[in-house]
Write a structure and sequence with these properties.
Isoleucyl-tRNA Synthetase, Domain 1, mainly alpha
Amino acid sequence: MTCRAENQMYKGLEEALLTFDFQLYTSLVMEYVSKMDQDIQSTQPFKVIKEDEKKGMAMIKELVNKLLVLGKMLQPIMPGTAEIIIQSILDNTKPENLFVRKE
């Protein structure tokens, strides 16, 4: 995501909160999650780290930073989940599965 696109997204998130448009807010958060997932799928940092540890670690650090941003985005709509994500990043631990799949 480019800086310009990120700025537009942040403005959209802020506007959605100010107007109490939680459907739009949630949609923008999910768009951010989708872009993160696309980044992971296209760059495959966990494969890269096996061949180039320095490059792989840099990729993973960038994704962790994006995950921290996501945690902060979730605070207005999922405060408990947001806290678990943020605290797990700060503690450098893996949380239990936050979103259990329904079968």
